[in-house]
Amino acid sequence: MCMSIEKIVSVDPTRFKLNPDNTNDFRLTGFHCCACDIFVFGAATNCQKCTDGNVIPVDFSGDGVLYSYTLIKVPPAGWTGTTPYVLAEGELLEGPHVLAELVDTNPEELFIGMPLKVSYAVDESGKQAVAVYKWKLSD
Ligand SMILES: [Zn+2]
């Protein structure tokens, strides 16, 4: 008899780390450019601003603010969530902007600058459980 222990995997390990043995242990990741002192979301070998190669990987705090948002009524192909949904551009405290769904919110109550926190949801519609990073309102 075959038995498999299903682990949750990250939707994009270069941007979102999730400890499959401790699902409370997750973070967005990126890099810091030592030459021009900026932070960028996601993986890179050279700085996107100054092109210097002296970049180091970092884990972000997960705290941010609402920079911009829109209500999506027509989702992209393959979308497995509910519609309509709020697509938010959040600004991490370290500076990078992250585009993600803003969950568990009423779009009528949103305002620019409100505090956000990185969260995630597990999509189990495929063969493997996939953790997708999301924004939620900060407590
Ligand atoms: Zn740079």
3D architecture notes:
The chain has 139 residues and is mainly β. It has one domain. Helix content is 0%, strand content 48%. The chain has strands at residues 9-10, 16-19, 22-33, 39-41, 55-59, 63-72, 85-92, 97-102, 115-123, 130-137. The mean pLDDT is 92. Bound molecules: zinc ion.
Provide key terms for this protein.
mainly beta; 48% strand; 139 residues; binds zinc ion; 4-stranded antiparallel sheet; 6-stranded mixed sheet; single chain
From N to C, what is the helix and strand string?
Answer: EEEEEEEEEE
Number of helices: 0
What Rg do the Cα atoms give? 16 Å
- Low-confidence residue ranges: none
Give a count of the beta strands, DSSP E runs of length 2 or more: 10
Estimated helix fraction: under 10%
* Spatial order of strands in the largest sheet: 1-10-9-6-7-8
Distance between the termini: 45 Å
Characterize the overall form.
globular
Count of spatially separate domains = 1
Structural class: mainly beta
The description of the largest β-sheet is: 6 strands, mixed
Bound molecules: zinc ion
Determine the strand fraction and express it as a percent band. over 45%
Mean pLDDT: 92
